Amino acid sequence: MKIRNFIALLIVCFSFNGIYAQNKKFKVYTVAFYNLENLFDTINGPNNDEEWLPNGTQHWTRAKYQKKLANLSRVIPEIGTGENPYAPVIVGCAEVENRGVLEDLVKQPGMIEKDYGVIHFDSPDKRGIDVGFLYQKKHFRPLSYKNIPLYIYENEQGLNKKAKEEGDDKVEENVNLDVKTRRIYTRDQLLVTGLLDGEEISVIVNHWPSRSGGEKKSSPFREAAGALNKKIIDSLYRINPNAKVITMGDLNDGPYNKSVKEALGAKGKKEDVKEFGMFNPMEQMSKDGIGTLAYRD
After folding, report:
1. Which residues, in sequence order, are bridge partners of residue 183?
2. Taking a C-beta distance cutoff of 8 angstroms, is the pair 27, 197 a contact?
3. What percent of the chain lies above the pLDDT cut of 70?
4. Bridge partners, 196 (sequence order)
């Protein structure tokens, strides 16, 4: 099976509201994000999954599916164990076909003893892949969760023939009708708020639009995703000025791209973070050569 080339960038931004606790004892937990890389089952569903069927181009059999689940269930609990001996209490996921594949994953021998719960919504992504949220029930109790759609459009004249054939003729009411537009269907952003051992936190799980068609041409779509992310975070602060927010995901951009630096407004140094701003620890890690960032290598 061929491995496709892609950008896989994990970014976790922690919110700072200018209030820092002093002389307070802390527990250390691992919060993780993992792109599950086309986690499809072998059942022909209502989504665009023909490629990932036994008779599809990937020849995706039950045996391959079970092997992938076994491999994932082995490595996910090991995330962060170099710093903390315990499995992640929260795992944001991308590229999952449906809720069923996540339920199959958490029932695997490597994960079932951790008793992970699952939060998932179907998204309108044309490839049929969604984001999801796993949490250890003994540590995290969800209070609310919702999927927030990303509405992005492309000028009809800029679409190629294939895109026209696959496009949607509907035009949203809030779009300038002077220009013919078509909606580009992509992943929703998943917002989960809950209690982590009694302390309220909010987590946003993202999988922003790809670089298909080129980085420059596709950048406005990821900038729109960053702007939506910022809007969600701002809304959380309006409700609770002391909110604790983590946003994570595969953004298909690096720490220095406009979607992260300008649209989301993430800062690479804690001292540069203003009230209700976001800190991006991945920026300094990138400078230090930690991790990888690649596209079509």
Report:
1. 153
2. yes
3. 82
4. 140, 199
